[in-house]
C-alpha cells in the first residue's frame, strides 16, 4: 500500500449494480427487524462490561505537532486515528500522503498504534467528501463488498474497530451546513452500518462506532443503534447555543446526552466527546454568528502568558487575551473532571478527547491526564462506597448464580 493511492474496488461498476429502493416502509421494516432481533437475543445476551472508555483522537495530520511516539497512551483505553483513510463512492480506499519526511505513512502509523496497549479504532470519512458515503451505501453490491473488504483490512492491520463519521452537510448540493439527515440518508446510513457491523463482528469481534453531531438525526431508531452500533461518539461542543458564550459547557454535555437517551439509546452506548480547544465567547444575536473555524488549542490557552485566566486560576474555563481583551471559553480542568464524574456516575460508556495534539504537555495542565485521574478517582470512590460482603453472603450469592463472577469497572 503506497501513500495517496486508491485501492481498486473489488465489486462491479455502478451500472452493473442495482440501486436499492428507498421508502418510508423500507426504513420502518429495517428498524422493525432490528427491534425484533434485539428482543430475541435480550435474554441470552451477556450483560455488557461497565468499564468506562477514555478515548483519545489522534489526527494523522498532526504528526509534526505530536509524533505518534509521544501519544500519552498510558492514560487511554482507546485511540481513534482520524484523517488517515477515506473511501470513495466505489468503495476504494484513499490513504493520506506524507507531508513531511519525518511523518509515518498510514501503514507504518497503523502498525505503530496497533502495538500500543490502547485499542485502535480507525476513523472513516468520505472521499472527496461525505457525499461519497451516501452514494456508496445506496448500491447493494458496492456496499456489501466494501463492508467485507473493510473487515478484512482491519484484521490485517490488527486494529480493533472502525468509526464512521458522516457529515450530511452538502453546501455544493444546496443542503445547509446545519441540516439534519433526510430520510433517504438515514436509510442509506442504516444499510451501511448494518453491513459493516455484521462483517466487523464476524472478523474477530471488531467494533463499529459512529461519530454523531447534535441535532443531525443520523438514526431514528434506538433499536437499530442497540443492535448494530457498539457506541455513539457524541460531539458535545460547538453547539451554537443562543446567548451562551461557552461552546462546550456542562449544559451542552447534558443536551448532547439527553438527545440520545430520549430516543431510548442505553447510556452505556453513549461516549461523550469533549474538545481540547477553546473558542471566543460573544453575546450572540443569532445562533449562526459564531465563526466555526476560530479556535485555540488548550495548550496555547493554558500554557501561554498571552492568555490570562481571571484571578490567575488556570483550572477554569475562561481566558482573556492580554493584547486584545478577547475572551476565550474552553472545557478546562475543572469542567473536564466534572464531565468525567457525570459520565461515570450516570453509567455512560465513556469520554472522548479531541484532539490529542491540542492538549497541554505539562502534567499539571494536561486535560487527558486530568480526565484519567478523575476516572480513577471515581472508580476508587465507588469501590469505597460498596458495602463489604461477608463470607456467608458471598457463598449464598455464588450458590444462586452458579459462581458467576461480577464484572469489574475501571
UniProtKB/TrEMBL annotation:
Residues annotated as signal peptide: 1-35
Pfam families referenced in this protein's UniProt entry, alphabetically: Glyco_hydro_18
Keywords: Signal
Residue ranges of domain GH18 in the record: 52-378
Keyword Hydrolase on entry: no
Keyword Kinase on entry: no
GO BP: carbohydrate metabolic process; chitin catabolic process
Lineage, broadest ranks: Eukaryota, Sar, Alveolata, Dinophyceae, Gonyaulacales
Domain of life assignment: Eukaryota
Classification via Gene3D superfamilies: Glycosidases (3.20.20.80)
Gene Ontology CC: one annotated term: extracellular region
PROSITE patterns according to UniProt: GH18_2 (PS51910)
UniProt name for this protein: GH18 domain-containing protein
One Gene Ontology term of the molecular function aspect: chitinase activity
